[in-house]
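note to self — DONT lose this again. spent like an hour looking for the file last time. sequence + predicted structure for the chain T wanted, 472 res
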Amino acid sequence: MSNKQASFHQSVERNFDKAANLLDLPKGLLDQIKAPNAIYQMRYPVKIGNSYQVIEAYRVQHSHHRLPTKGGIRFSHLVNQDEVVALASLMTYKCALVDVPFGGAKGGVKVSPRAYTPEQLERITRRYTVELVRKNFIGPGTDVPAPDYGTGSREMAWILDTYQQLNVGEIDAIACVTGKPVNQNGINGRTEATGRGVFYGLKEALSYADDAKAMGLEPGIEGKTMVIQGLGNVGYYTGIISQEEGGAKVVGVSEIEGTIVNPNGIDIKKLFKYRKDKGTIIGFPGTKKLEVREDWVGIECDILVPAALESQIHKKNAKQVKAKIIAEAANGPVTADAEEILLKKGVVILPDMYLNAGGVTVSYFEWLKNLSHMRFGRMEKRFNASQFTKLVNLVERSTGKSVSSRERTFLTRGGDEIDLVRSGLEETMITAYGQIREIYKRRRKVEDLRTAAFINAINKVASDYTSLGVFP
């Protein structure tokens, strides 16, 4: 193993190669799947204060085997082409893995959102959108962006508005971007989607008693200790949903200002409010601050959730890990070098390309909603409620017993949009994990879940290319 740290892109390619070497596919086909199809590097001027700044930005369409391509837009001062290509490639494999019919893409703008006012960020975002439109790198049937690190529904609303101004009369224009505010053609459940997907993935992985026993754990999430790195959108929703619906205990949280621990548990909802009021997680009642922020890696726990940026667990700190499961809520938080160390230690890694697929899954639902021009549940909610009511009435007449008003309401309600979105997401995560686990259990030489996930994704993309007649 070299002393030089592998880049994020190199780690992704090493993981791809590890899986590809176990497949009987033509080299040319594998090279096509691996290579990015289109890279758009741009620099554009934006007036900031009394002067102009030249903004560096990217959009990468990794694979055109299915259209549109799909992937978030990242705002960070660390953005570079290598990172965006790596993220776009992961999107290709992620979409294939969860059977979302998109090719992979990703965008990046090299700015630190904290360094700009909302008005300045709006100018940067709108001009970025103009650049994408000029080169046909955005559109409901071409390339559909979404939020990522440093962006959210606000930026997606700016993108939508700019696109509509430049494409007057396009009937499906609202489907040019996902992650929009609900009142601007977004979808209920999108904000929580990635974190909820992490929860569903963990829940499914721990539902197999023999697998849990091999890790030295009881089945289920309830009572499991958890450490979360990053209290952004993904970390926050992973934490509160795991606590409120799964019964997990969050014993440590790390953020840019430091790391706090409490073996008795940290209420994520209260911590989030505390940080919003105080501007820091440090000092939250009942917690102790670690002297070294980066020591979150070595906190004793069952489940370690890196939910921030890539390459957070690397070969220099991997030996500190005491968790039994690493749940990759972020993209590429564990480097390929670190993974070798962790697998030798017996740590189970739930790979990012599966575990954080909740975001793109619900983005797919939003895209479908936008194309149909109708919210989910509008057609069937009242019909289902009526049928359920008739069924409850029949049971009451047949048994001579009555249900309470609360029970009747619970049993007879039709599904709202949020219910259908959550149901669809859970089904997606359960099905995808079942496919990964089957490959992991049944194929010789497959030593970890990430390799199994890559094998599944590569096979699906290869099948698409073959059916298109690109390869015999």
